[in-house]
Structure formats: C-alpha cells, structure tokens
Amino acid sequence: MNPRFDSSRFVAALAALVFVATACGSTGSGTPSASKGTLTVAGFNFPESSILAEIYGQALAHDGYTINYKLLLGNREVVAPALESGQIDLYPGYAATDLEYYNKSAGEANGDATATTAKLNSHLQPLGLTALTPSAAVDQNAFAVTTATQKKYNLSKLSDLAPIGGQLTLGAGPECPTRPFCQPGLKTTYGITFKAFKPLDTDGPLTRAAFKNGSIDVGLVFSSDGDLNSLGLVVLQDDKHLENADNVVPILRQAAASAEVTNVLNAIDGKLTTADLLTMNSQVSLQHQDADAVATAWLQQHNYSS
Amino acid sequence: MTVLSTVVKWFADPAHWSGPDGIPNRLVEHVQISAESVVIGALIALPIGIALGHYGRFGNLAINISNVGRALPSFGLLVIAFQVFGLGNLPILVALVALAIPPMVTNSYVGLREVDPDVKEAARGMGYRELAQLVRVELPLAVPLVMAGIRTSAVQVVATATLAALIAGGGFGRYVIDGFAQQDYTKLFAGAVLVAALAMATELSLSGVEQLLVPRGIRLLQARVVQRATTFKTA
Fold first, then answer.
1. Phi, psi (degrees; rounded to nearest 5) at A240
2. pLDDT of A83-97, one tens digit each?
3. ipTM score here?
4. Cβ separation of A173 and B181 shorter than 8 Å?
5. pTM of the predicted model over 0.80
6. Which residues of B touch A199 (CB under 8 A)?
7. CATH label of the domain that carries residue A17
C-alpha cells in the first residue's frame, strides 16, 4: 500500500531493536566496552527543554553512556508517546504538567513538588516509566512586579500584596479572571483583591509592554523566563503554593533507569536552581548561544569537566 | 436553539449592562475608536480623492495606491504598529485609519470624475470660479459616490475595530477575545452579535445621512417616474 507507511513502521521496529539493546547495555554494569550503553534523550519544542536535555545527556555521556539527542521533538503530545513506545529513553519533564498529562487532566497536581511527583509516578508505573527526584528548579506561572514597585512596597512574596492589592492593577491573559491559578486563586489563597484587571496575554509581548508603560503593576509570567532580569522584573515568591509544582523532573523508561543513570540524574537535579534556568534561558534566547554550549558551561561550573 | 437561548439570557443579565466590562462602556469604546479612525481617514483621503478627481490627473496612481492599501492586512498592520508605538490606542488607530483611507480615495476620485463635463462647462460659463464650481456644483453631484466610500470605510472600520482587543484594547472585541480565552462561547457569540449589529447600524445611519446630503435634483432623478412627476408639480 502506501510505501511511506511501511517505511515508518520499519523505522519504528528498528528503533525498538535499538532500545532493547540499550536496556541490556544499561543493566549490564561493568561491561568492559567503552560505552555503557546508548540512551536517547529528547526535549520539548522550546529552548529551556533543549538546555535541560543537553545537561542530562552530557552528564550521562560524561559518565560513559553514548547519547543520541532528539531535541525540539515536539510538544508533550508527541514526546510522551515516543517515550511510552520506546523511541526515546528520557526527557526533562515538569512534575505538575506531566502529571496532568498522564492522568488526563484529573486535577491531582498541587503546589508540593514531592507529592506531585509521587502522584505522577503512580500514573507512570503501569506504563513502564518513572520520574526521578524533582529538582528545585521550577518553570511555572508566577507573578512579577517591577523592581521599582518591589522597592516602593518592600515586596518579596505574594502574601505581601494582600494589604496593598487595592492600589494595584493586575495584568494577565484574558482567561485569568476565570482560572483558579490566577485571579480567583489570588483572592482565595492570598486574599488579594486588585484595583483593576487588564486583559493582556500569558507572559507575552503585551504583558511586557504593559509593564513598560506602567499600565499594570503585577503581571503573570513564567518563573524561568530568560528576560526577567533584563526587563527589571522580580518574581514574587509563591509562599502559599497557589501554583502547581512544575519542578523540573527527568522522566524515563524504567528499563533505562539503572541505579547509575538514576544517580547521575539525581545529582544534576540536586544542583539545578530556578536562577540557573533563568540565566541559561537568557543566554539562549537573548544572547543567542547554543543550548549545548550553555549546558556544557553549566556542567563545567558544577565540576563535570569533560 | 440552546445556543440562542443562552445568548438571550446573557443579554438579559443586568450584570452585563454596567461597569467597565458592561455593554454600554464597550459600545462607547468601540464607537469612539471607530469614529476617530473614520474622521482622521476622511481628513486624509477626501481632499486627495477630491483634488485628483477635480483635476483629473494621476487618477490611476491614486487608485492603484489605494488598491495596494486595501490589500494590507489590518491584523499585520496592528502588530507592526504595536511594535512601534507600544500599548495603547495609537496602534489601533493606525491600523484602522489605513483601512479607512482606500475606499474613500477611490470613491471620491470616481465621484468627481463622473461629473458631466457639460455641467462643469456650464458652471464656468455662468461665472463660477474654480473653488465655487468645485464646492457648489461638482461636490453636490458627487455626493452619492463620496458618501458610499465613507459608508464602506465606516462599516469596515467598525467590523475591524474588534481586533483592538487583541492588543489589550477595549470595544466589543473584548467579549470575543475574552470569551474565546475563557471558553465562554456565549460571551463570544454575544460579542459577535454586537459587532454585527453595530456595523449594520452604522450602514443604516450613514445611508440616512447620505439621503440628507444628496441634492434634491439627483434624488428626484433616482426616484420613480410617477413620484418624479408629482414632486415637480408640488415643487
């Protein structure tokens, strides 16, 4: 019939073979061969994911594994099935978002990274997948103010906004007034009622322009955005855990999760911080450095000399 | 039917008729930005179209330029203007004025061109100076076409002002954009109905204005023969 269909099946079969070999390689510790096995690391179609995939991949390569990269593979709807089918072995996930993907948006994620990851693992287990220990680095919805506003009211966390919310204008995507993580959540969890709400976009150019011309005081951003520092924006700490814990967490096939691989990845996650993400994102998106070079630099800083 | 009834309920809810996100305020915002755009557009387009039509020169140039203008996508212009001017009403105004100009240039040019040369000769022969001839003879005769241009522009502008909500502006577009983002399709539908109603109201009221401006002679020419005869008798 369709020759393309046949060839894609052939590729999939071939890939499956490779991964069987991979699984054997990674479990057979102490083999005298130069490579401890081959692992395929994938990333989502945005720069931060490429950086994280490179960090994981290069650290594993440093440990003696042969790494294939499938960066910018696609969104979660593409990457997760590729992991389930064994076309890839590992991708840098985000605890809450991945949980809500695997549980089909059951709303189980919360602000606690450990609990969210445990829930995630309960959904991954039957699929032959596993999520490791979540990192402290987090890429989630966050509310930012300008450094001027921060100094004026002496702000550091979202609770600080409760007494002065009536003087401030909130800016976010038009859906904010109906989303639990946004305006309603700020009201119920923190008791913040804003003077006004300005419908803009979710962490896009409108929000940035509105900060610039002063038409909003508080805006919705993502906590690891590379341009926050250069725009003079400060993220307020989510001290009551309104936002779901989208901590960076490696998700991999159980067959690939040998003790050694787990140790290497956990060591990385133990060192990675949100500030690191922010810096590396700005190096890639603002200074146009390559993700692999940025990852190498981070690893070298943390004593993974190649 | 269920969609219609929820939309009717939406309109019946008094909460949607007050406050900054209420229909009256959104109507004022929508009409204001549209009116500003059409007026500014007319101030630019009508003198150009009228002058070119009166002198009968560079007509092809004018029509070609305004046809290119018609091909410019408003959304694209809006995004570029936003990059240049930042947040506020100015980028919306730029995009809408650019949209308003072409039909008015083309129609006023054609309107002035179509004035019977014999009438112009006669006006000259009766001692009209050039300006008087333009204002008192040519323009009144060109009113139907000039007004048609203004009407086309205004309706397009009212419909397109919906885009303002994409860059945080007000107007009825707010309901469409917010409704979409909030998956509140009743609100979205209500917004679309409001925009359509306002566009039709614009069309109707401007044709009313046109009726008032068209000289009686032309009106009678366009009327049916019987009516024409009786009117001449009573007049």
1. -110, 15
2. 999 999 999 999 999
3. 0.74
4. yes
5. no
6. 165, 168, 174, 177-178, 181
7. 3.40.190.10
